[in-house]
Amino acid sequence: MSKVKAAVFASGTGSNFQAIIEDKTLPCEVVLLVCDRPSAPVIAKAQRQGIKTFVFSAKDYESKEAYEQEIVDVLKRNEIEWVFLAGYMRLLGQTMLDAYEGKILNIHPSLLPAFPGKDSIARAFEAGVAETGVTVHYVDGGMDTGPVIAQEVVEVLPGDPLESLEARIHEVEHRLYPKVIKELLQK
Ligand code: GRF
What we know:
about 190 residues
């Protein structure tokens, strides 16, 4: 039986994209990468794996609605049922949210609702918190505000530099995101 089809949306390095596509036990198959930055390293990662890419620049469109309508058309043409945001640096608009209601997930490197938005790991580190972590949540129109599905705590160790905290958080991300996708899609 063929697997349910999914797309990953990413803007940068793509380490979470890689972690998702490498997990062959997932009940879905990632058949498309959507990327809003033509120079993002994640594009080469998709090409190496033979995964289709839809790369766009928001500035080429009149509005968010216009580029999202094109994305939705591409998703529908590819029979995509689930969307996983993995470092996609744009808020979703109503066009995407309406087309994929309840079928869009995001991963965020903090224990939401703490430290939403950019540079969350550094901001948690600078705030001197004893623990931070990783959140997987449903996506709504806000900045990292949708209902939480799973969280995992990562301790901030005394004397540990920011780079080490970042590495430990990314390690958790790469394990937690595929695990949550698997559990959710198996339900
Ligand atoms: C990750 O930390 C993710 O949680 C956040 O953006 C980062 C993307 O990293 N939303 P990568 O491109 O997956 O390596």
